[in-house]
Design brief:
Length: 377
């Protein structure tokens, strides 16, 4: 059976809302990481079979198949196709899955997967401005629930008994770990400067439970979710080059990781953000790998209760969860986040000789992706 490997993984710094990347068009931001793939590998773009790009708010700057315009903005040959996928926050992780599947099936040999979101220019919720996506039958099925992720995060916190203090402790740890990683140069090899931005902008050094205590709840008057223990609105892009081991050898590329298994799971769309729990179980079962064998877990920090509930249900080692911080500190550029997390995880695995890494993302509507990769020899 064919194998798929990732031979390059690169991302932009993640910009904060209104920050250094706010004036960069999504196609141009995407082009920066596509260009970086070429620069780092010597890739001839004409050989790329497809570019599969994640993006959530496909309106305005990000409408009309941003994946195709990313290719053109990068100056790649017009013969290189591009497409855009949307699985909510897991869009670019799903783009990677589609890329891997096309390589494993033998349809393609060389595919770029990634994604983009410039939330400063295309605000969260822009795609719903002219209507709602779920319709009356869905609303009737779920008793007119608002399908608001913040409310879902509140429900998760209540179900698992997470106090505001516990959530704020986790948020502060995210900033602490991200700051330590940035200071140690952990992100340097994976990032490409854009528009003068050379480092992730969202880290708030010195964040603690005391400093977070003054923030007002965002979704319920007596709630526990606020801006400080939720993911940041961000701008960013990331790209990964997927191929076969044979093609990698022929091209002189050393694989970073090999793809072991992927899974997608549906879950309660009211709780909405608990999908990573069954998705993790599913991907480990498919791969035949035990939870204890996995050396690093990237569980997207959409809201602090999400990774904490995942941790409580899986029993994973908390020291292996988001060791470089997560979206609370580093930001969550929606359609790019899956590829950003994978890029970050791969480079961490390479730096520390970690055999297995598992990434999982909660997604709007109650789905989740999980991907398991293994360090290449």
């Amino acid at each position: 059976m064919r194998e798929a490997v990732i031979v390059a993984a690169v991302r932009t710094p993640v910009g904060k809302r209104g920050g250094g990347l706010a004036e960069v068009h999504a196609a141009d931001l995407s082009a920066a990481v596509l260009t970086a793939l070429v620069d780092r590998t010597g890739l001839g773009p004409a050989a790329v079979d497809d570019v599969i790009w994640g993006c959530v708010s496909q309106v305005g700057d990000q409408s009309g198949n941003i994946g195709r315009y990313a290719v053109l903005a990068a100056g790649w040959p017009e013969s290189v196709p591009g497409t855009t996928v949307n699985r909510a926050c897991g869009s670019s992780q799903q783009a990677l899955e589609f890329a891997v599947q096309s390589v494993l099936s033998g349809q393609h040999e060389l595919v770029v997967a990634g994604g983009v979101e410039v939330m400063s220019r295309v605000p969260l919720g822009s795609a719903r401005a002219s209507g709602i996506p779920y319709g009356p039958q869905v609303l009737a099925r779920y008793q007119d629930f608002s399908f608001n992720q913040g409310v879902s995060a509140e429900l998760i916190a209540r179900k698992w008994g997470f106090t505001r203090t516990r959530l704020d402790e986790f948020a502060a740890l995210s900033h602490e770990r991200a700051a330590a990683a940035q200071d140690a140069g952990a992100f340097a090899a994976e990032t490409v400067p854009v528009a003068g931005v050379v480092a992730d902008e969202g880290i708030r050094r010195g964040s603690g439970v005391e400093s977070l205590a003054g923030l007002r709840p965002s979704f319920q008057e007596d709630g526990v979710i606020h801006a400080g223990n939720a993911s940041q609105i961000s701008d960013g892009a990331a790209a990964l080059l997927v191929t076969t081991p044979e093609k990698a050898r022929e091209s002189g590329w050393k694989p970073l990781v090999r793809y072991r298994a992927g899974a997608v799971a549906g879950s309660d769309p009211v709780l909405m953000l608990t999908g990573p729990i069954p998705a993790t179980e599913k991907v480990l079962r498919k791969a035949g790998v035990a939870l204890s064998e996995v050396g690093v877990f990237e569980v997207n920090e959409a809201f602090a209760p999400v990774p904490l509930a995942w941790l409580a249900e899986t029993g994973a080692d908390p020291g292996r969860l988001n060791p470089l911080g997560g979206a609370i500190a580093l930001g969550h550029p929606l359609g790019a986040s899956g590829a950003v997390l994978m890029t970050r995880m791969i480079h961490h695995m390479r730096a520390h000789g970690i055999r297995y890494g598992l990434q999982t993302m909660c997604e709007g509507g109650g789905t989740a992706n999980a991907t398991l990769v293994e360090l290449a020899d």
